[in-house]
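Extended Data, record HTH cro/C1-type domain-containing protein
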Amino acid sequence: MEDDEASGEALVLRGEENVAVRIKVERETRGWSTNAVSDRLNEAGYEINPSAVWRIENRKRRVNLDEAIGFAEIFGVSLENLVGPPRLAAHARAMELIEDIRRRYREMNLANRAATEARDALDAYLAEHPDLREEADVLVSNAIAEDLMAAMQPPGLLQQGPPAEPEPEPDAPETGSDR
């Protein structure tokens, strides 16, 4: 077992085992009996008796999805939190941060997919209008470079609005048709 823990294998999620431990931890933390948990589940519309709660906690009975939803509801935790590793899941802030990373990673993947689709659409259009290819590629490359540079700036240094126009040099000749 020590080898498993050293290799990180002990951290592999095992939903039902985690749920059994979490139910017992959550129940004991609140000072509730298995009768109290059963009563709360029944009041919330999830029919389960105290014996079934005890059997689930002691891994003598599997928990079904509806019951897991009920347990999460009465304990005031997300279903994902309920099935997470008990030690980690007991730290709500850690679970929030992990979920934030997962959500942002999904958003990043969706944004990457949308960017690829947009690039494919532009490529298809430019295949029909090859005379625009060079200018379009430069414009896209410049826009991406500007966005990357802005993303690398510390938050306080980000420019607000378009960049200011440079002041003309005093000795520069006037242009135009003022003559």
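Summary. The CA atoms of residues 72 and 80 lie 9 Å apart.
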